[in-house]
Amino acid sequence: MTFQRQRSGLREFDITKDGVAHYGLFPDWWEDVRRVGGAAAVRDMSRGAEAYLQAWERVNGIHFGCKSPRQRFASRGTRRLLLRSTAAQLLRRGGQPRLRGNRTWIWCVRGKKNRHRKIAVALTPRGRVALVGSNTRGSDLRRVRVGDPVRRLRGRTHRMGAGLRVGRGGPRSRFVYGVRAGRVRFVAVATRAASKNRTVLRRYLALARLR
Where are the domains of the chain? Predict the structure, then answer.
C-alpha cells in the first residue's frame, strides 16, 4: 500500500523537510525511526512509558536485575514472592520484573543455562498473587527440583490432567508440578482458589507462561 504525502489545504508536508509539523506526521516519523534504527529502536520506543515508570521506581528504592535460579518454594511461595500479595507489595519485595502485564509478571534469571527460563507470577483479576512458579534449573519445591525424574513425586501428588501433578501445600495453598517426558519441567505454588479445578489452574499457568 502506498500513501501520499499529507496535505492541509494547498500545503503538502514532507517530514524530511518540515519535521513533525503536526500530529498527522507522527506515522511518518515512526517509520523513519524504524528505517534508521531497526526493530531494536522500535522496541525501545514502544516501551518508553514502562522505562519511565521503572526509572522512578528505582529512585524510590525498588531494586532491579535478574534473579538467582536457586529458588526455594514453600507453601506461601518463595522468600520474596508471596501468594496473595498486592501488586505494590510484589514490586517492593520482588523488584522490577522483566515483563509486567496486567496479570502476568516475569523475572529473568542469571546464568547461561537459564537464559530462556523464568520466575513468574500470575495475578487474580483483583490484582492479588494467585500463583508463583519457576522453570529454572535449581528451583526446589519439597526437595523436588526442576529436571528431577517424575518418580520423585510418587505418593506426594495426584494427576490433574496430562502433564500436571498437584499436591497438598499449606492450609490455603497447593503445590503444582509440570511434568513432561518423565521429568519435572516446572514447580509452582498456587492458592486453593487458583487450583480448585483443572481449567482454572491451567488458566493461571498460562498467564504465568509456564505451560
Answer: 7-46, 72-207
- Across residues 159-168, what is the average pLDDT? 94
pLDDT tens, position by position, 79-108: 999 999 999 999 999 999 999 989 999 999
User: Residue 73's beta-bridge partner residues?
Assistant: 141
Label residue 151 exposed, middle or buried (CB < 10 Å: 0-12, 13-18, 19+): exposed
| Closest residue by Cα to residue 1 from 23, 26, 31 | 31
By three-state DSSP, how is residue 54 classified?
Answer: helix
| Cell numbers for 97 | 520484573
On the 0-12 / 13-18 / 19+ scale of CB atoms within 10 A, 48 is exposed
Q: For residue range 36-54, what is the model confidence (pLDDT) as tens digits?
A: 888 887 777 787 887 788 7
Q: DSSP alpha helices (H): ranges in 47-102?
A: 48-59, 87-94
pTM: 0.79
pLDDT band at 145 (very low <50, low <70, confident <90, very high): very high
Q: Given CATH 2.60.460, say whether it is the number of domain 72-207.
A: yes
The residue ranges of DSSP E strands in 67-172, in sequence order, are 72-73, 99-100, 104-107, 119-123, 129-134, 140-141, 144-145, 157-159, 164-168
DSSP H or E segment with residue 17: helix 15-18
- At 68, give phi and psi (nearest 5°): -70, 140
